[in-house]
């Protein structure tokens, strides 16, 4: 059949029908899709010709594989992977090595005893065949695994470990294949010196594929942040993803690794804007049906009989190698018993990557003779593993009790714009001299400590913000039983006749609050060095800096980085916006570790006046309902443990597809936003960003960003 449109209709319709029949038999949908493809293809009724499925629909398969790889990258969240990092490493090496060794040894023995090669083959020929089949056996089918986990709504330690192992598995497959080809070249042409070169080529392919994908992920994140419409996000995201995939093919890199790296970069960015993943997921069902039915139409059942005992040995010992290798790796890593016993079963599917490696063997003139045997053997393994693999994956997830999760989804729309003024102009006004307003202190005066224990320093610079800095410094000093200290940095040659007048505004503010103000004038040509020296000279409990009303934010950010690196106390950065109130406090939390980062500041604010505090826990949008109750209990226990007293306390657990938009929406009902900033290098911020810094750029409320010093061992 030459009509591509009719082929699409048949593939979609037959795939859907067979999936429904499969569900009645308790089979995964993927198995139904593949069976539908087999029935439509040359091995069945021949309605889909090899030309249609191979040439005319090849580009569609490439698009589908890129989207699937992107979806796998979404599952590689470093904070989750860290919990199972040791297990992933040991299991990944164990299951790949297990399948490589068992398949290579078994195929070597079967080939020798069954007389493959017609009696003309030497020991080296059998060894080459065994090495190539062993290397190809390492590859898995990430698309099949991902589809089964999504269909079952699986979540838990086994699922997290499985997806992480699958993600790294095909990178390892490329490495194993590169090493095997290098060894084969040396065996066939002794002393040609190609081993080291081939190894380096394999490592280069992996490295540049990951770099291309990470760069694409950064560009997608930048573009998505500027789009609000779901259709625009999907169009822009698909364009960039397909450009990434085609660029990888043109550069002879791995589109699969590039796609995974792009998804991984987006999901691990501090902004964690996953709206593109959701848009793609809504777009995925017909793509998945077409991809897997197409894969089934490629399968030639005649190859199974041709491959004979060698094909059966490849299939069986690959499964044994995956299961036993994963068990040994899990045992060595001290993984939970359920992971040791179940993970290997879920690694049995094999498809696209293995077929791609077969094509590489076929395209190598030196290996063309081996390709005639390898192709039907691997196709036999693919046919059987794609039929049996999804069933074993489903069995493993059911046995681990990680299926049937209920997902809480909470979309976060954009903040409503102010109709009276252009949003950008209003934002600039509220951060200008005229927009920043410090209302007079109306609460009762605070009582300074009888015995001073250190100081809370604030950088005094701009008259519009110095009152707000003095107020926050006094509140925090009150908590630490310290005194506020204003520090001004002046260049050495500047003549100041009346230094006391430099501090009159902040002095009035602290006096109104009931506290005296300590003052310090530092002579230094560099602002960061001057402030750092003042911090180190005093018993400093906390340092407070304010974003500039005028000048470049980039220059100020460098000052913050330099000071935070040298400081031995928390550094709190205030970004003013409009009127400074502290009554209704919002504390967004991307993870529970950030609670400790902001605890001292939140407690300090709660001790003065009457406050309401909202702890906003941002969960990934696909977390199950049970996580909400667990997180709420942790937050409530934290409040009780730290004895925080406030007029109203609220724990809000939100499953969000865009952290930024969720925080902006919640901030509309609060006066002040308090966030912790993780300790990261410039390179880490370039790749993963900083959620606190991103929020501060467009948040329409005053904001405190807390930088904590590194803990000394």
Q: So how many helices?
A: 27
Strand order of the largest sheet: 3-2-1-4-5-10-9-6-7-8
Question: Uncertain segments of ≥5 residues (pLDDT<50)?
Answer: 405-421
Biggest sheet overview = 10 strands, mixed
Can you tell me the CATH class of the largest domain? Mainly Alpha
- Assign an overall shape: elongated
What is the mean predicted local confidence, pLDDT? 79
Total number of distinct structural domains: 3
Question: What oligomeric state do these chains adopt?
Answer: single chain
Radius of gyration, Cα only, in angstroms? 31 Å
CATH topology of the largest domain: Na+/H+ antiporter like fold
Strand-pairing-aware structural class: alpha/beta
What is the level-2 CATH architecture name of the largest domain?
Up-down Bundle
Description:
By secondary structure, the chain is of the alpha/beta class. The protein has 3 domains: 4-399, Na+/H+ antiporter like fold (Up-down Bundle); 409-435 and 581-713, 3-Layer(aba) Sandwich (Rossmann fold), CATH 3.40.50.620; 436-569, 3-Layer(aba) Sandwich (Rossmann fold). It is built from 27 helices and 10 strands. It has helices at 4-24, 29-40, 50-56, 58-74, 78-83, 85-114, 123-137, 142-152, 157-188, 195-224, 230-250, 255-268, 275-298, 302-333, 337-342, 352-362, 368-399, 423-430, 463-480, 504-512, 527-537, 553-566, 593-606, 625-641, 659-667, 682-688, 691-698; strands at residues 455-459, 483-490, 518-523, 540-546, 571-575, 584-589, 612-620, 648-656, 672-677, 703-707. Strands 3-2-1-4-5-10-9-6-7-8 form a 10-stranded mixed sheet, sandwiched between helices. β4, α22 (553-566) and β5 (571-575) form a beta-alpha-beta unit. The longest helix is centred in the first third of the chain and has 32 residues, at 157-188. The radius of gyration is 31 Å and the shape is elongated. The chain starts with a helix and ends in a 6-residue tail after the last strand. Mean pLDDT is 79; it is low at 405-421.
């Amino acid at each position: 059949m030459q009509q591509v449109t009719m082929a699409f209709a048949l593939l979609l319709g037959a795939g859907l029908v067979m999936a429904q029949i499969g569900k009645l038999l308790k089979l995964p949908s993927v198995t139904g899709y593949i069976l539908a493809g087999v029935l439509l293809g040359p091995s069945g009724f021949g309605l889909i010709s090899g030309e249609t499925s191979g040439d005319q629909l090849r580009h569609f398969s490439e698009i589908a594989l890129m989207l699937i790889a992107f979806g796998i990258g979404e599952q590689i969240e470093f904070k989750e992977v860290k919990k199972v990092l040791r297990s992933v490493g040991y299991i990944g090496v164990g299951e790949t090595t297990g399948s490589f060794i068992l398949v290579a040894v078994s195929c070597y023995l079967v080939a020798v005893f069954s007389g493959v090669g017609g009696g003309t083959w030497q020991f080296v020929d059998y060894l080459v065949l065994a090495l190539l089949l062993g290397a190809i056996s390492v590859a898995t089918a990430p698309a099949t695994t991902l589809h089964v986990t999504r269909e079952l709504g699986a979540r838990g330690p086994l699922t997290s470990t499985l997806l992480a192992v699958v993600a790294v598995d095909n990178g390892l497959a490329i490495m194993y294949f590169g090493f095997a080809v290098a060894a084969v070249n040396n065996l066939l042409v002794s002393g040609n010196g190609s081993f080291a070169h081939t190894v380096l080529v394999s490592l280069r392919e992996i490295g540049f594929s990951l770099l291309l994908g990470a760069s694409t992920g950064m560009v997608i994140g930048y573009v998505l942040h500027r789009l609000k419409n779901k259709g625009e996000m999907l169009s822009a995201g698909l364009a960039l993803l397909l450009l990434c995939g085609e660029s990888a093919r043109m550069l002879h890199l791995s589109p699969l690794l590039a796609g995974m790296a792009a998804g991984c970069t987006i999901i691990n960015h501090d902004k964690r804007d996953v709206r593109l993943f959701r848009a793609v997921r809504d777009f995925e069902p017909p793509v998945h049906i077409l991809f897997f039915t197409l894969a089934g139409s490629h399968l030639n059942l005649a190859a199974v009989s041709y491959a004979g005992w060698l094909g059966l040995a490849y299939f069986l010992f690959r499964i044994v190698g995956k299961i036993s290798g994963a068990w040994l790796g899990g045992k060595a890593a001290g993984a939970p018993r359920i992971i040791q016993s179940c993970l290997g079963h879920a690694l049995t599917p094999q498809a696209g990557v293995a077929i791609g490696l077969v094509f590489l063997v076929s395209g190598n003139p030196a290996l063309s003779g081996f390709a005639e045997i390898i192709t039907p053997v691997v196709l036999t393994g693919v046919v059987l593993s794609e039929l049996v693999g999804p069933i074993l994956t489903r069995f493993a997830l059911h046995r681990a009790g990680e299926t049937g999760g209920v997902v809480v989804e909470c979309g976060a729309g954009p903040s409503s714009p102010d109709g009276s003024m252009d949003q950008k102009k209003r934002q600039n006004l509220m951060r200008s001299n005229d927009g920043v307003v410090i209302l007079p202190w109306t609460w009762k005066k605070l009582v300074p400590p009888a015995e001073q224990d250190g100081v809370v320093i604030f950088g005094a610079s701009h008259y519009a913000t110095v009152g707000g800095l003095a107020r926050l410094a006094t509140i925090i000093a009150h908590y630490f039983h310290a005194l506020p200290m204003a520090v001004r940095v002046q260049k050495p040659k500047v003549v100041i006749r009346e230094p006391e007048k430099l501090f009159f505004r902040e002095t009035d503010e602290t006096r109104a609050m009931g506290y005296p103000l300590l003052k310090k004038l530092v002579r230094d040509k560099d602002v960061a060095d001057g402030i750092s020296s003042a911090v180190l000279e005093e018993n400093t409990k906390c340092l407070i800096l304010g974003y500039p009303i005028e000048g470049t934010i980039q220059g100020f950010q460098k000052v913050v980085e330099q000071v935070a690196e040298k400081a031995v106390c928390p550094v709190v950065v205030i970004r003013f916006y409009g009127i400074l109130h502290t009554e209704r406090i919002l504390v967004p939390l991307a993870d529970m570790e950030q609670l400790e980062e902001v605890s001292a500041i939140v407690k300090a604010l709660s001790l003065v006046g009457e406050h309401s505090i909202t702890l906003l826990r941002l969960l990934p949008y696909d977390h199950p309902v049970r996580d909400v109750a667990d997180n709420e209990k942790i937050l409530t226990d934290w409040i009780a443990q730290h004895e925080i007293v406030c007029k109203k306390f609220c724990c809000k657990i939100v499953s969000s597809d865009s952290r930024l938009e969720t925080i902006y929406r919640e901030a509309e009902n609060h006066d002040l936003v308090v966030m912790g900033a993780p300790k990261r290098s410039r390179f880490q911020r370039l790749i993963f960003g900083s959620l606190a810094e991103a929020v501060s750029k467009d948040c329409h409320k005053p904001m405190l960003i807390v930088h904590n010093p590194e803990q000394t061992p």
